[in-house]
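To assess whether ligand presence alters the predicted conformation, the chain was also submitted together with zinc ion. Input:
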Amino acid sequence: MNSLLLTGGRVVDPANAIDAIADVLLLDGKISAVGKDLPAPAEVERFDVRGKIVAPGLIDLHTHLREPGQTAKECIATGTAAAARGGFTSIVCMPNTSPAIDNAGTVALIHERAKTEGVVNVFVTGAISKGIAGEELAPIGGLKKAGVIAITDDGHCVQNNDLMRRACEYAKMFGLPVMDHCQDYSLVTDGVMHEGYWNVALGLRGWPAAGEEMIVARNILLAELTGAKIHCQHLSAAGSVALIREAKKRGVSISGEACPHHFTLTDAAVAGSEKFWSGDGQDLHAAGGAQPASLPAWPAYDTNFKMNPPLRSAADREAILAGLADGTIEILCSDHAPHCDYEKEVEFDYAPFGITGLETELALSLMQLVHTRRLSLVDFVAKYTVNPARLLNLNKGTLTVGADADVTVFDPGQTWVFERAASASKSRNSPFFGWQLQGRAVATIVGGKRVYF
Ligand SMILES: [Zn+2]
């Protein structure tokens, strides 16, 4: 059952510098061959994928599965189902569950649950600090032994620079990258949206770009000091991109990721759809070539436009796109952060930060990067496959013969509307319901088995 012959697709495998029309043979859960007119045993099912892209299974290295402890929002079964629907064969879950993933027992629990309930591969990150409280180091060696692939306090940010330095030193000893949610608490205080024109107009407290840039700068200095690999999560600000670009030129072991909401939307969206479409959203759909019949509408103060870090200015959005185009930002991800309706249906100030993203990120990223010709398809696929695999030392993200048969087949041109009722996630906190999107997963194959098609 774990065998399949994919015929006639455009195979895009950046790890092996392949971009060609070819067949891909999956046998017993492994990649068996890639080439023209491949012979296959008679019993192997053939799957015609002409006109589609055949890529290594996509990896999302930033998701919140909410299990254990917050399963009203999401659980491993629903989170991995949403991943499969979005075209992802591997996802990495963040440790801000309850209890937090700061001990070997919780890591083992998630591995066990993922094996029995998950439909895609789940990789686990451990906390930097005990209880993600930023005060004492978590047992990093024990977490590594239990199988975590990185450490992060995501959702929170270690403010004590000495503690962060020690975390980096331990992580380096254990060969783990350190991922960081960059937020300086003393600058951000209780900000709920980007500090600029719109937060003043709307009467909401500001979250300044410098609150992110300060910690990105700190991380660059600590990467130089300790030699650890530091990865800055969900970059939103132009200054962060400039800092990382300059540091990478000097060979510093720093990297970054970006999420589609930050390079599609801006803070104007918090003022409602009219303000957004008549301003920063003007050429969003035209650029992709897919003109929807009517533009989606939403009111001002819609809490599905509240996330951390917040949506920023049009200039920041442009800088993130430029950083993705020139390779400064090597990785794309969702920061899939489900919340219950009743939690989001409150005043903007009181709503939790975060939106779902696994089912829309492939389309939104294609629209903003490939359909606009900012990025080639090969470079685009790399940001979802070989680049995250390299950062996290995962044996994934490639169609090399002998590798696990994780494959994503997608149609970059397919237009579709993201319907609220059709989401596989347990939560509905997406700003993109009703949007006409272009690009969609056609089949998600994990270990040679189709888990979504
Ligand atoms: Zn975060």
